[in-house]
Write a structure and sequence with these properties.
The chain has about 350 residues and is mostly beta strands. The chain has three helices and 27 strands. The strands form five sheets. Strands 10, 11, 12, 13, 14, 17, 20, 22, 23 and 27 form a ten-stranded antiparallel beta sheet that branches.
């Protein structure tokens, strides 16, 4: 049972926050907004559905929503909007893993039948709690959280007592999402974290470009699991994967994991018709970026900051953490990081 915590709106200067009951979604929705006093095209707002997986399903800039979300899928807590991947982003080989000498099975975790290794974490289809809104003259903020306890779904697949908290902070420049993993158990906890945003193309796909400051792409097998080979995008043979300079989204046919990111650099989506750029930056714990472009085109593509590679938990068991980058939290301790989605206007 999730506490709704319905609140009257809070306001401070140009920032506002409120929790409403969305009739279309039949669920509480948190709205954080910023009103630009000089230009309405620079207004910002985000919507988060805590009871629908803490999905940040809307990110409006002026009249445009940068997140593509299908309400019917969101109500089912399916893949849409910007959902949370934790503790295992993407796929797990054979739907099982070994950690500290013990084997765990994910076979009972329900996922689409045509995706036998797809896991996408264990919390995007959970109902989350949320805390009180914080609205100040320079930001609007809220924290959501979900607990892993023996009563949680899939506990046998991941029996690590813990809390994942997400703090959403809206400023004049955009929105930042900070995660905190609190290990409440008596042993070390393994995890990877990511967000999975479906970015709207907004206009003719030939206009929209994307760049990723990454030196290598991970080779994958037919199940999209890593072979452990890293391909240098600077070489002629793998030039088709080079996204260090902006590339039109409509020319890309990708479902790949990039790594060896340039420190301090951001992935960038450029919307020339809307005269804006969206920069995706993250703290140093985010070592990988996934890009997915639908094979049949469509109104969106995915660009995902991740703290690890696909199947990082099994790469760890093979002493391949340099490739996989599994994160670990000792008993009683916490670990945090942040992804920022920043808007610049032209």
């Amino acid at each position: 049972m999730t506490t709704h915590n319905h609140q009257a709106g809070k306001e401070s200067g140009q920032f506002h926050g409120e929790v409403i009951q969305d009739q279309g979604l039949n669920s509480p929705v948190i709205i954080l907004s910023y009103t630009d006093p000089l230009n309405a095209d620079h207004n910002l707002s985000v919507k988060i559905a805590p009871e629908l997986g803490s999905n940040l399903f809307s990110y409006r800039v002026g009249n445009y929503d940068l997140i593509h979300c299908e309400d019917e899928l969101l109500k089912q807590m399916a893949f849409t909007g910007n959902f949370v991947l934790w503790p295992f982003p993407n796929r797990i080989r054979d739907k099982k893993y070994t950690y500290h000498g013990q084997e765990y099975s994910l076979a009972d975790v329900p996922r689409p039948a045509d995706q036998p290794v797809l896991i996408h974490g264990l919390v995007y289809d959970r109902s989350w709690h949320h805390q009180q809104l914080v609205v100040l003259p320079d930001k609007a903020q809220v924290t959501t959280f979900v607990d892993i306890t023996p009563e949680s779904p899939y506990y046998a697949a991941y029996p690590f007592d813990s809390r994942l908290s997400l703090t959403y902070t809206l400023t004049r420049r955009g929105v930042a999402v900070s995660y905190t993993v609190h290990n409440k158990g008596q042993r070390t906890l393994p995890f990877g974290f990511a967000l999975h945003p479906y970015f709207s193309l907004l206009s003719d796909t030939s206009d929209v470009t994307v760049s990723i400051p990454a030196e290598t792409v991970m080779e994958a097998d037919t199940m999209l699991l890593p072979t452990t080979r890293l391909l240098d995008v600077g070489t002629v043979m793998y030039k088709m994967f080079d996204l260090r300079e902006p590339q039109p989204v409509h020319t890309l046919k990708l479902d790949h994991v990039y790594t060896d990111l340039t420190p301090g650099a951001s992935a960038v989506i450029h919307y020339p018709q809307q005269h804006m750029r969206l920069s995706l930056s993250a703290t140093s714990d985010f070592t990988h970026v996934v890009i997915y472009t639908p094979p049949d085109g469509g109104p969106f593509f995915c660009l995902e900051n991740q703290t690890c590679a696909t199947d990082a938990i099994n790469l760890h068991a093979r002493d391949l953490d340099q490739i996989g980058h599994l994160l670990e939290v000792k008993a009683g301790e916490k670990m945090s990081g942040t992804i920022s989605y920043t808007v610049d206007f032209e």
